[in-house]
Amino acid sequence: MSTQFLYRLPVEQTQWKFEGQTTTSFTWEYDDGGADLLKLYGKGKKQQWDAAERLDWSLPVDPDNPMGLDDRTIAIYNTPLWNRLSDKDRAHVRRNLQSHTLSQFMHGEQGALIATSKIVQTVPSVPAKFYAATQVMDEARHVEAYARLLHEKVKLAYPITKTLALLLESTISDRRWDMTYLGMQVLIEGLALAAFQRIRDTSSNTLAAGVNAYVMQDEARHVAFGRLALRDYYPHLTDAERDEREEFVVEACYHMRDRFNQGEVWENLGLPVQECVEAVEKSEYMRLFRTRLFSRIVPTVKDIGLWGPRVRKAYEDMGVMEFSTVDAQAMLDNDGRVAEEFDAKMFVDKALGAR
After folding, report:
1. How many CB atoms lie within 10 A of CB 204?
2. Where in the sequence is the domain holding 290, given as residue range(s)?
């Protein structure tokens, strides 16, 4: 069955194409150092995995709560609106909200697939091209995993949100290779890691948690890739060039923070949209969630040197400056360890199931 039949909004309303500007960069220097990038490339080769094999797709998924999340993660939980809903309506809310979240993961991974293929084409060094090539395969695998989870298990999908589409377009269409790095490897991938982590660490469904754990293992390398490349490049920018990139960071972060009201879901469910959006804005859980989304982005932005007054002021306004002292590398290392722990758990679960 075509995936388009699963969408809760007409795909024709949300599909888009845009003209991108790309400068292709060849290099004839095949041994230009880049020891850290080559090490990351080696790690990327060793950590390739098959989404069809590493995950146990026979595991069941509750259609009324596909990811096995606590209702307290729903912004309208325990509001007068939520309390008026029947059990059947609450099940519809859970399923649609979780489908919307997974759909944005899937669309974002396709954006990453396109962006990383562009990085292979535009980045000037061979080690960076080598590593980016492994990431292209990673992103294809992630699209495959989320599409299968939505198609076979949840059986419901949503088109891409306007704000995510806007951020992807600005990231992919820019001719400068470092802007694609900045938008994708630092901002989008950094936010994705924090969003994936919520499901990995709180989902009671093994399959949903496993998909996110394994994707995060790859994404941790991707963010490290962006940090390595930009940390070396940005000290050489002019003040005007740095200002332009800091402005992009600020605008993108506000866009990402404000895109979580899920208005499309409330409208599709026939719920009072304004009341739902107001509940989202007042929700303490959503406030904390939006704050934690930047736990991966803030320390990386600081590490690559985009730490001027404009950026610091924006992060103070968002209430996320506390993350500026976080050890970003330690978090990325932990993502790898958690994925390995999931491997062990999957092995044990299969062994017990075979008895």
Report:
1. 12
2. 63-353
200-226 per-position pLDDT tens digit:
999 999 999 999 999 999 998 998 888
Q: How many CB atoms lie within 10 A of CB 22?
A: 14
Burial of 62 (0-12, 13-18, 19+ CB in 10 A): middle
Q: For position 157, which CATH number holds?
A: 1.10.620.20
Beta bridge partners of 7: 157
193 touches 223 (CB < 8 A): yes
DSSP letter string, 158-211? -PPPHHHHHHHHHHHH-SSHHHHIIIIIIIIHHHHHHHHHHHHHH-S-HHHHHH
Percent of the chain having pLDDT more than 90? 62
- How many Cα atoms within 13 Å fall on the side-chain side of residue 92? 14
In Å, the largest CA–CA distance within the chain is 67
- Asked, for residue 22, whether it belongs to a domain, the answer is no
Question: The pTM is what?
Answer: 0.89
